[in-house]
Amino acid sequence: MTGLGQQPAAATRADNVRPGAKKADTPKKVVRVEDIEKDIAEALTVIERNYGGTKQLNYNDVMKASIDSMLHTLDPHSNYFDAKEYEEFRTDQSSRYYGIGATIGDLSDADGKVIATYIKATFDGAPANRAGLRYGDKIIEVNGTSMLGKPFADVRGFLRGPRGTPAKLVVERLATGKRETVDIIRDAVSQPSIGEYYMIRPGVGYLAMRGGFNQTTYAEFVAATRELRAKGMQQMVIDLRDNGGGLVSQAYRVANTFLKRDQTVFTQKGRIEGVSDQYRADNPAPDKSPVVVLVNRNTASASEILAGALQDHDRALIVGENTFGKGLVQNPFQLEYGSMLLLTIAKYETPAGRLIQRDYSNGNLYDYYTEGGSFRDITADPAKPTGAESRTDGGRVVYSGGGINPDVPIKPDTIELERARAQQKLTNPIFAFALDLVVGRVKGFENYKIEKPITFGYDISKNDFPVTPALYDSFKAFAVGKYKVTPAQLDREREFIERTLRTELVTAAYGSQTSGQVFNEYDDQLLKAIELLPQAKQLALDSTKNTANKPNPGIR
């Protein structure tokens, strides 16, 4: 077998073949590493000397594009990270970023022109919180540069920066209109895997595990479940929607919470030594609570390993959409100059022997990520599984090669594009009205004034900032008068307005993470998942019976 660095055999010239003799096959030329290096260097020299376009040659961009293109001929998930991207990758895996620790949003006028960007919430213990920034503080300057008229995405770039560096903000306080200078030193800001957890119903805990599997995921999971148990949790919904994966070791530890010792969590198969192995649970006293796991098209990788393990052992009811289908193992290889190669070294299998990975044999990345992945048609019925058939511990049929198919499919809510655009336009009058409301400037609704700093870790009730008919009418008059919208346009989107306005108020009082509780009450997928908990309970009971009769379940 030929390989890199091997010399090609001597070729036989066609004019030396005897008449009537069979013509010898021309040996294939073997590509050597030094030949590739020479060709790349020569190509760069030609480009540098002769390129006449307007774009300036950037060696980092050229090399990155070259290496990424090479890797993507192999599979969709091997990638090259330059030094800056590698540092961001490491930061993401540590569940943090560096900045001031605040959520921000911009406000536009009736003509769509950005007025300014405002603080919406700070995070517990973050620099912005310690500095006393509050909902509605208008950001005037950052380090001497005016932020007025800039969209929030641009302002965010000015606020983030290396740890220990200064961010001098000039803000205009919402309550007084006075400008103040606030000196902040950027620091690590937590990006938790579990953004929110609370008792969504009596006895039912909800864990929004949507932030990826990072170094702190399992510790967060233990802390969250312990706190919810103390509040009476007996059943739980684990929300893995939009969780793109991360550290498989963390997914293993979460799965291990629910699986009996010696049950397989996943199998890893590769061709290099030390890569192929079967990973089994080692928990002598697994949690037996009924569990519903909520998934969607963006649930991928480590999230699919967790969902697949719990499904194959009949330990959780999987609800939602077909998951993404990423079952390839990437290992980081650090290169010179601080760069990194994230290279596929193996594939994952679920306990029942299912391959999670979708087909990518046509090599078309666009098709891979759209037609089959995150942007596939959500209005269409789920594609019928075509992979190999396997069975769960309890005998339920599951399929290979297309991600994790939910036990109970539930389509997400969708709206027409025009309606989405109409709703987007309403976010500005809603935000502007909320700014007046939280400082007591709306006549008759002074009791909505928020004077205290954020109360973190709060579970909202229906009595917190209700959008009553009278409050809706007050907003309606405001929006018609200042934002050129008609009463009919507002009434068509009344539910959206009420939900979004209440979210703003909850954000001001309890923070951006808690505000997700408002949207959850309108989330049909989540509400149906809660309704399916009795089915999950029966599944948990059946699973307990099955494992009691199998001394080493999951071992194939």
Task: Describe what is shown at a glance.
The chain has 16 helices and 21 strands. It is an alpha+beta fold.
Explain what the structure shows.
The protein has 16 helices and 21 strands. With 556 residues, the protein is α+β, with helices and mostly antiparallel strands. The strands form five sheets. Strands 3, 4, 5, 6, 7 and 8 form a six-stranded antiparallel sheet that branches. It has a six-stranded mixed sheet with strand order 10-11-12-15-16-21, sandwiched between helices. Helix 6 links the parallel strand 11 and strand 12. Helix 7 packs parallel to helix 8 and helix 13 packs antiparallel against helix 14. The chain starts with 32 loop residues before the first helix and ends in an 8-residue tail after the last helix. 36% of the residues are buried.
Helices and strands in order:
Blueprint: H1 33-50, H2 59-72, E1 79-81, H3 83-93, E2 96-99, E3 102-108, E4 114-122, H4 127-130, E5 138-142, E6 145-146, H5 152-159, E7 166-172, E8 179-185, E9 187-190, E10 194-201, E11 204-209, H6 217-230, E12 235-239, H7 248-256, E13 264-270, E14 277-280, E15 291-295, H8 302-312, E16 317-320, E17 328-334, E18 340-349, H9 365-369, E19 389-391, E20 397-399, E21 408-409, H10 417-438, H11 469-483, H12 487-492, H13 494-510, H14 512-520, H15 524-531, H16 533-548
